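User: Predict the complex with pyridoxal-5'-phosphate.
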Amino acid sequence: MNPNPTAPDAGDVPEEDLLELESRYCSWGDTVHYARELTMFNRADGIYLYDVKGTQYLDLQMWYSAANFGYGNPRLNDALKRQIDTLPQLACQYLHREKILLATKLARKVESVFGEKGRIHFNVGGASAVEDGWKVARNHTKKNLAFAFMGGYHGRTLGASAITSSYRYREKFGHFADRANFIPYPYCFRCPYGMKRESCGMFCLKQFERLFETEYYGVVNKTGNAEFGAFFVEAVQGTGGYIVPPQGYLPGIKKVLEQHGILMIDDEIQMGFYRTGKFFALEHFGVKPDVIVMGKALTNGMNAISAIWAREELISPTVFPPGSTHSTFSSNPLGTAVALETVKLMEEEDLEARVMRQGAYFLSRLKELAKRHPQMGDVDGLGLALRVEMCQRDGYTPNRELTDAMMNIGLSGTLTAGGKSKGLILDVGGYYKNVFTMAPSLYITEEEIDTAMALFEEALLRGIAETG
Ligand SMILES: Cc1ncc(COP(=O)(O)O)c(C=O)c1O
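Assistant: Here is the predicted structure with pyridoxal-5'-phosphate placed in the model:
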């Protein structure tokens, strides 16, 4: 142990000592410790992370889709560096050009894809933006209650965890906001109603429609006035396991919401910014949102800012006046500068074509692998949001043990794919914690996909050997 642990800033503190300091001084409440052993990284480049020993890890998670445009993206890094040298700090009550240009570009983008005029409102972090979106909806509808999906994830502040399905996130802290009424998501591989997509006739949508038929289902009064003001939607369910809904489902939901004055809040925090091949994932499904929530990759994971867009009618200064929400750092100049460059990059590059092409190749390679390994029970995706659901040999029973083993093997940095030691970063999600939710850099090459597949298969074979 370092003889002087109160001054651990010498730059050469050994890894074991750092781990010891972490166990003593870092709260574990602000993170998740999924791995058997904690790995310490000290460099990131493109799609790779490097640990303190120099081992390279191919990252199929990219900070939960916050670093869509690659680690150390030179164009985005330069924007940040330029801003540091000009206007690094500024209280949000004053104006700076990057904030205005960023809001303009985002609002115009929404207008071009959804045909609606609106405004952009900034905050820091996804959960805060989710709460801002909820404030907009509550203010407009004067209704506190919301629908959300089973398996949905919207963050862990007290408000956001009320609309996140897991009770675990509320259990120790009581109720602050009324918890959502959770509706089954169209998770067709494990249909909550035990049906098959080919023959179900969208039974789940019909069940939702039925809730509004009579006051006795607890949603509307005799005249059809709903007790609920908002429905939080992830167009492709993220933490729930990268589940893609069937076409027609979300338009059906929206139709019912419109009939009852309920706003659709589209949470694009994880799936936005071309993760699925479109600027917003909801674009794939032909639905217009009332409010959009954005975060994560808006700044490529640097100087986090988040944002909401809302229809003019919901957010004009006359109805949502100054101070309706506030954070010291909400439109901080470093965040807005890098976000502005990120949006310019998305305007200039044909990311849709690239992501759909690379996603199709990645999915085809995963499907090939699944033919040889029945444990890969479901393989699916949209763009570069890909899912691999790990099962027992029957291809259906969830296999969390194997999933955990593979995740840990990837993180041990001891895979080789025929070369020197490498690691593979895999993120685990899903209702049974048995789904690899893959979110590689949007710039992943075919060669990198091939390497990822070799590493994945090696982890799978070692995982099967370990877990039996
Ligand atoms: C869909 C979705 N909404 C909200 C959040 C919360 O964002 P943050 O972790 O930045 O608060 C996340 C984070 O993973 C998310 O995936």
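The chain has 14 helices and 15 strands.
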